[in-house]
Amino acid sequence: MRTQRRLGWAALAAATTAALAAGVLTAPAAHTAEDPVEIVVNGDHVRADNVNGLTYKGLGLLSCNSTSNLLMDYKAEQPERYWQLIRELFGGRNPLINHVKIEMGSDTNTSTGADPATMRTADEHADASRSPGFQLAADAKTVNPDLKVSILRWVMPRWVQTEWNKGTGSDEMYKWYKETILDAYEKYGYMVDYVNPDTNETRNPDVSFIKWYKKALTSDNDFADPRYGLPADKRQEAARAYRNIKIVASDENTTKNIGPALLTDAELFGMVDAVGYHYTTDDRLDGSPDSATYQPYTKLATGDNTYQQDKEVWYSEGVGSFGRTDYRVRNTEGPGGASTGIGGVQSALDLANRSVKGYANSKRTHYVFQPAIGAFYEGAQYSHKELVSARDPWSGHLHYDAALYVMQHFTQFAKTGWENDTNTKGIWRTVPEASYSGVSGTENVDGSNGAPSYMTLADPALKDFSTVVVNDSDRARTYRIKAENMRLGDPALEVWETRAADPGQAYDANFKHLADELRPDDDGFYTYTVRPRSITTLTTLDRSDDEETLRRLPESGRRTVLDTDTTGKAHDTRDSVLYADDFDYEEEGKVRVGTDNGARRTAQPYLKSRGNQPRYLVDQTGAWEVGRDANGDHVLYQYMDQSMKDTGAWNRNTPNTTVGDFRWENYRASVDISFPDPAGGRATLGVRQQKGMAATDAAYSVGIGPDGAWTLYDYGTAVAHGTVAASDGYRLAVEAKGATITAYVDGTAVATYRDATAETQGRVKLGTDFHRTAFDNLKVEKIDGYTPYATTLLDSMDSSVAHEGAWSRKASLGDAMDWYRSTSTSTTAGASVTVPFSGTGIDVIGGNDGSAVLDVHIDGKPVAKDATTTATAKRQATYTLRGLPDGRHTATFVLKSGKLVVDAFRSLSADVDGTVDTSPVRSALEAIGNPAQDDYTADSWALFDTARSAAKAAVRGQKGLDVIGVEQLTHRLDLAHAGLVRR
After folding, report:
1. pLDDT tens digits along 562-585
2. Short-list 442, 229, 276, CA closest to 353
């Protein structure tokens, strides 16, 4: 085997670049469709001297654009659940994730939202604690000090961008990076391990700046500047660690140019330690086999190149599983309308196949999820593509997807990570000759062709190996594995499997379990038939009694609605407040933060622990931070003014942020606003936000400026406007009860608007233009006589939901605006869906054209016949039913005609304050008199009798009955009476 040489870039610059080595590794032979797949794990192929390219680094996560935002609230509000999450993802002997990649924030929206800029101006001292990514890495290091941390940029703060556009911004860029890195070092005790100096997803790697940055990094001797905050006794250590930061390039997406650049530029080759690209599994294949454009990434990883050195190759940004595996297993996307189980495009098995194919085709030994944790509110771009959902810090609810078990098949049966300088850590090597993938596709891969897909990892001491096999097809596949030139102890081979449940089993019955134990046949082969739609790891390791391997993921817990007392912290359903925030946080205690490179956790004051970021707010655009006003009181500022204005966001919007619970329904939101920017300003307060990332994505909002001109909006369309007296500040309020929306300025109603197709539920939004603006005393209150919120949302593909008749249940390539990216659709008359729920009403959610006509039954009794639906956007209610007695119910919706798309169901709370006038129901009962049952047909009487009984119960007094329930009961009674058919 080749002797590893570790040369600096100066030596490499002198090396010849005239020819590239032609010794590209030969992949395993193609496999026929029916024959068993034979794999030979040959110890001679385990390259112990390859310490960069073929060492299996495992998995990482990307923290960026608000995806980690709510994690800091979990840490403060639910510390036990938060630290449990840290242990599950980053801890243990075999960590699932061992790298936190941080995309530097710029207060601009770079897909799902905005991360704070660590330096908003050139003069501001860097503050890494604003960024949840730096905090997450610090906390993860408390359970794994060896965790790697990397950073890169996408959009720059304007002070950097302005100079960069002139072609003179290298120093500004370097200052932003350096001061951020050193601030994280000073606060958390760790030095960033990797920096990509280039921009995220570039198409043309900036080779000249990469070189400039590397030289500046390694020659920097300035660590005494007071701006860095480094004590004198730590400067030498910091300098040494700083100058050892490695370079990763170039995070391309649609192009693959950095590989050939490295192979033809000796200086660049010596400067770059790792290469990464996004969202494709394949290498570059143009040119002759000995050219720099043919398999450049394979040549880099294997060391089969001119320089005889191997480089790390990363799948440096890839997706998590789309939707939730526990819902998508009920899809009808398999052959003949069968389920694809835990497989199918964008599924957990898709992730596994991406990892296998990314390695087999381009030798990438590290996969970075964007994101692994979804800690931002649903409804933003790219929702529902994560391994863990963390969106309700007030409840502590965390959903661990089954995709975690699938990915553990790679990490729990090998020693993963980064090899040390002496090559003694024992990180397992990937074995190219025993790895292969024939599944189709390059990003959303498809294993339904049944082609082999497997990856082999081996101990460099040749004592053990593990082969991971993915079968995302509807037919079984037999594998025969043989070990040669290995120093195995016990030749037994354990078989660990994950797949969907068999009929009658619990949902997780077949998740990561020991399925078999094999002994070699007379010819030395282990033979095993891999089941359809499964992932299987065959390993010589003994994990049968290993506690860590056998441990199940934590339960999710309840998604309790956000309903607090006046402090905004304590759960309290008894008062009139849904949520409140005065931005002082006197009710909050200290928060524990990982420091000293993970050696300890330090208790810090609430705001300090989180860089003055407000509670529960998820920013879509803008610099939202708690600061002190002229009186010394804490208020919420939006700082992004004309001097910092958004320069290159992915989604360009005026500053806005979101807070609250998507289940909030009828409520009044109010906030104090003021305009400290002498150049002007404008502030908006919105309600019932379900999706989108602009201020206008609140269903209803009121905006005002210091001149007193106000406007009421329906999804950004002005529906009323006027003027009040000019002022430096106002108290804005928006009240939403049913379809009626009222805007208030300083306690006076200035406009009332009725929306015939109302959005009925959603969160609160705050917005500004590009001026510094202040907010204080946010309050969200219940409205007497109206139900304040739904209690649960149930996906249409939940196991408790029963579909009868012809339904298409889709999960693959689903829309992010559909809950969990899944929908159930029918156009067949007579098709029905039955759903259990608790509460006083139920909504049918989905994007619909309004053509569906339904019969509706509750607890087996008819409540509506030929009911029409409403044309709705996604996440809106196409049909609503109110006025039911509080309790457990079963609803059945029968499609009579048209097309019905069911995304999810919402059930309504019985928490109604105040008294409700039931006189409309009483009047309707008096108007119908006492019809005789014998005069009418059985079907029409059954509907009438149900409606009359419900009306009588309402008049007698019914818990949870609200104004909308009274309206619907009255309407249903009138319709049922009018629909009576004489015999």
Report:
1. 999 999 999 999 999 999 999 999
2. 442
